[in-house]
Amino acid sequence: MCNLLVVPMKNYNRDEQNPLPIAPSPNLQTLQAIINYPTLCFFEGTPFSVGRGTPTPFETVFLEAEKTKTKLCFNKIKLASKKIELAFILKVYKESNLKEKFFNSFFDKLAGTDQLRKQILEGKSEEQIRESWKADIEKYLQIRDKYLIYF
Known about the structure:
This protein has 151 residues and is mainly alpha-helical. It is built from five helices and two strands, in the order αββαααα. The chain is globular, with a radius of gyration of 18 Å.
């Protein structure tokens, strides 16, 4: 057990975006990268790169394969919200034509289960996938509610 004192911040608005005084990670250098992260992190469970080690990590997704001379690249990605943008993941999956080679074993770990991978392979739509999450999200929000300081 630890003694913890949480001090609420005056005039905090959780819907407001605040500039970061320092980057929270070497791979999250910009606010756009932070917004993109919930979606683009899934590509770390695929043959695609999210640009780690480049000047724009989590602002680009690319696949380069020397042997097949294949190149698929999405640059300057500006996702609009912090939610998982399934439409983007489904688009890259479809355009890559990699099918089952699209996923590596890390994808299921990132998703928490194998359900999302299986839904994508089955050709489920974004709406069908989101619908399958509803009950678990509702349970989570009820649990989370008692811990929120800012509403």
